[in-house]
Structure formats: structure tokens, C-alpha cells
Amino acid sequence: MESFLQYIVTNYTEISKNIKDPVLNTWLFMDSPTYMLCIYITYLIFVLKVGPKMMEKRPAFQLRTIMILHNMIQVFFSIGITSMGLNIIIKMFSDEYNSLYDTEIKYTGLTSGWWYFFGKLTELLDTIFFVLRKKQDQVSFLHIYHHSITVIFSWYCLKYLPGEQTIVVFTLNSAVHIIMYSYYFIAALGSKYKKYLWWKKCVTQSQLIQFGIWLIYEVLIIIFPNILTMECRTPKFLTYLLILKAIIFIYLFSDFYRKKYKTKTA
């Protein structure tokens, strides 16, 4: 136990020293985790306690127009983040690529990483809409855990791990969110568009594929630390945490997929 705690402390010290650009601290929400945690805690209190209590004796809000706009914005937002990430990844394979910390690529990576984190904050509205529409059954452990851990990890990875490793992960995730929010957008248009939603299970399938690729990528980084011209500068502790996160997501989403689709066809 003592050696394990020492390992945690050592890696935390290494991670804390891994901040490459003090300019990041001047960006919105990035100086301290306090702002992010306040938003997160407020979110939890509302969707688990205050919101359900507030809606207990009130009729459900429809929110159709707001949800259509929200989902449409998320689609275009995800397209933008995916494009920025792919642009960096393509440069990673180019002959001119030396390091993400070259000025141009570094700034693009940090900028896209911040917008990705900001996008995770706006996605918390998904749960708030569930509560206001009295769809509390959709506020599941998987839903809350997914949104919560993604907000926290995206902040910490941007703050302490601004490099190729996280760019690949958030680009992959944003690409999947194009599919996911496109589905939500069509669903929000109304029942007459339900016939176009035959591919519902593909949303979860794409998420599972994403986590599988993510897991393989992180494992390869442990085995081959110089993969994709990555310099060996990333604290392994964070890579292990990302691997654990991917495994947990695979388990939770697989369980959801089995209960939602496999049980019905059995």
C-alpha cells in the first residue's frame, strides 16, 4: 500500500510539472479546476435532487425548438472539432512534423482541446432537458457517469496532457458525436420523422467501436511509447487512467446495448 501511494504521489508530481504552456492558464475555466468542479457539482445537484423535486408537481416542458437547436449546434460543433483534430493528426504523419509543441501545431491543438472541453460542458444540457421534460428514467447511472467523467477528464487532459495522445481521443469522440447528435436532431423533429431513425442501435455500436479503438491505441502507447512519432514525455499514470476509463465505458455501454437490444430480440 505504501509503495502504491508513493507511486500516486510521484506521478501526480510528474503530471503537475507537465504543463507546457502557461498561456493555457489565462483561458476561460483553465486557471483552476474550481470553475469546472462548481459547474459539475451544480449539474449533479440539479439533475439528481433540485430538478426532479421542482418538476414533481409541474407539467413537463416540451422544449422541442430548444432541443432541435441544441442538437443541430452540437452536430456542427462536433464536425468542427473533428476537422481540427484530423488536421493535426494528418500533420503528425507528415515529413515536416517534429513535435506537437511546434508553435503552430501546439496552438491549434490547445485551441481544439479547449473547444472540446467546452463542448463537454454544453452537453450537460442533455441531462437537464431530460429532467425538465420529466424523463427521469433516462437519467441513468450510465448517462450521469458518462457526462461527468468526460467533463472532468477533458479538463485534466487539456491541462496536464496537451498532446497527440488526447488529440486522437477527442477527435475520435467528436466524430462519434456527429452520428449521435444527428440522431438526436432527427428525433427532436417529431414523430413523423421516426421512420428515419431505424439506425438507433448504430449510435451505441459506434460508441463501442470508438472505445475499442481508444483502448487499443492507449495500450499500444504503453507497449510502443514512440508510436505515431510521439516523444516519450507523457506520464504513464495518465495513460493507465485513460485505459481504465475506456474499459469501464466498454463494460457500461456493452451492458446497455445488451439490455436495450439483445434482450428484445432473444
Task: Give the gist of this structure.
With 266 residues, this protein is an all-alpha fold. The chain has one domain.
How many DSSP helices?
Answer: 9
Number of domains: 1
- Uncertain stretches of 5 or more adjacent residues: none
Largest sheet: none
What would you call the structural class? mainly alpha
Distance between the termini: 46 Å
Which outline best applies? globular
Assign a percent range to the helix content: over 70%
Number of strands: 0
Rounded to an integer, what's the Rg over CA atoms? 20 Å
Estimated share of beta-strand residues: under 5%
| Mean pLDDT figure | 84
Order of helices and strands: HHHHHHHHH
Describe the structure.
With 266 residues, the protein is mainly alpha-helical. The protein has one domain (21-51, 61-265). The protein contains 9 helices and no strands. The chain has helices at residues 2-16, 33-55, 64-92, 103-122, 125-132, 141-160, 164-188, 200-223, 236-265.
